[in-house]
Specification:
Length: 226
Amino acid sequence: MVRKSIAWLIPTVAIAVFGTNLRAQAQTTKNFEIQYNTLTQIVPFQPGFVRATIRGTSSDGAFGLNSFLSETYGRLDNPDEFPVVSPIARYTFNSEPTAIGLPSTLPAFFDTYSGGANQLFGKADDRAEVNFATGNIQGGGTITIFGGTGVFENATGKITFTQQDAFDPSNIPPEGVPGVAILKFDIQTPTRQVPEYTPTYTLVSAGLVGAVLLKRGKRQKENNFL
């Protein structure tokens, strides 16, 4: 009777534990905000298109991210208005040339956010209005994160930002128009996989159950002969 119970129980235990042989992938989320002082350069590239370069610096960036470099292509979205009808030029910017109608033979860009060993890399997609009457630039958008180094290794997530610049339309400095950008980071980084159960643990568990029951049955049989 005891041996029949053992024969039924051991495979049942093995199947139940093997069925939960899973690995959980955990993630760590980092949410923070950094304000940067910026210099923005927008230069003609092709008819209806520009190249934009933005450099940012901060003295107290989270995780040491005290600088960034963003390079994008820009497309003039209101060529029928600017500059004859309106002094405001509206642009769409993107790291990928094909995203705004430029040929794929052009190199793609990406943003770099740096701080010692810690870096983030992302692709920009944003909009801006340049008002040549008032000397203001207002813009904002999203940077999609695709990797990093240091504490941001294999990072994903996004950065949303707004930026405001002021300049003298009659005297635009060659180093760029100064301004302020506020960036909000929503970053996820993977942590190590956590094993729930393993085949080794399963076999050991089933073996221990079987050994205990066999030993108990043997003792009962010996007691019956006494």
